[in-house]
TrEMBL record:
Organism: Nibricoccus aquaticus
InterPro entries: HTH_MarR-typ, MarR/SlyA-like, Tscrpt_reg_MarR-type_CS, WH-like_DNA-bd_sf, WH_DNA-bd_sf
Keywords linked to the UniProt accession: DNA-binding, Transcription, Transcription regulation
GO molecular function: DNA binding; DNA-binding transcription factor activity
SUPFAM superfamilies registered for this protein in UniProt: Winged helix' DNA-binding domain
Keyword Disulfide bond set for record: no
SMART domains referenced in this protein's UniProt entry, alphabetically: HTH_MARR
Domain named HTH marR-type: residues: 30-167
Protein name in the entry: MarR family transcriptional regulator
Length: 188
C-alpha cells in the first residue's frame, strides 16, 4: 500500500510559494521528503509485484526472510513469535495471524522452545525454504535492476544519507509532537 498517494509531485517553485503561506514549510526539505516517499512507494510496488506473482504477502515474506536469515547465518536457531513481531514492527496478534497462515501452508512450524518449554519457537520448514528459493531470484533481480542506475559509490552514499534520515526519525519519534507554532530546528 502506497504511503504517498501523489504520482505527480509539486514543482519546487510551488513549494516556495506555499512556504509564504506556511512559514514552517522548508521547500527543499519538503521536496526531498516527497521524493523519498515516492521512491519508497515505487520500490515497494516493484517488490510487491514479484511477491504477488508468487501469492505471498509482504508480511509473510518478511517472516520467512527473518527465519531464513536466522537459520542460514546463526546455526538454525528458531525465533519466538514475540521476537518476530518485534523485528517486523507489528503486534503479537498480527504476528500470530502471519504465523498461522504460514504454518497452514506448511512453510513454518511451531515447536516448543528448546530452552524454555513454556515458549513456542517458529522454524522454517523444507517447504518454506523451497518457496523462498522460488521467490528470491526474482526478488534479487528486481532489487539489482532498481539500483543499477547508481554506481557502487553512489549506493554507499545513499545508504549513508538514508541512515542519517533514520537516525533523525528515531530522534523525532521519541519526542512529543511539535506544537502548531513550533518548528523543528535543523539541529533538533
Amino acid at each position: 500500500m502506497p504511503l504517498l498517494l501523489l504520482k505527480d509531485l509539486p514543482r519546487y517553485e510551488c513549494l516556495i510559494d506555499a512556504a509564504k503561506t506556511f512559514p514552517d514549510l522548508d521547500p527543499s526539505a519538503c521536496e526531498a521528503y516527497l521524493y523519498l516517499l515516492r521512491t519508497g512507494d515505487e520500490a515497494f510496488r516493484i517488490t510487491d509485484e514479484n511477491l504477488s506473482a508468487h501469492h505471498i504477502s509482504q508480511g509473510r515474506f518478511s517472516v520467512l526472510m527473518l527465519l531464513l536469515n536466522k537459520s542460514e547465518c546463526c546455526g538454525a536457531q528458531p525465533r519466538t513469535p514475540a521476537e518476530l513481531a518485534e523485528l517486523c514492527g507489528v503486534t503479537r496478534a498480527t504476528m500470530t495471524g502471519l504465523i498461522d497462515t504460514l504454518e497452514r501452508d506448511g512453510l513454518v512450524t511451531r515447536e516448543p522452545d528448546p530452552v524454555d518449554r513454556r515458549m513456542m519457537s517458529v522454524k522454517l520448514t523444507a517447504r518454506g525454504n523451497e518457496r523462498l528459493g522460488e521467490v528470491l531470484p526474482g526478488h534479487f533481480r528486481r532489487m539489482a535492476a532498481l539500483m543499477s542506475g547508481l554506481t557502487e559509490s553512489e549506493r554507499k552514499t545513499l545508504v549513508s544519507l538514508l541512515l542519517k534520515i533514520l537516525d533523525r526519525a528515531s530522534a523525532i519519534g521519541s519526542r512529543p509532537p511539535f506544537a502548531p507554532s513550533e518548528s523543528a530546528s535543523p539541529a533538533a
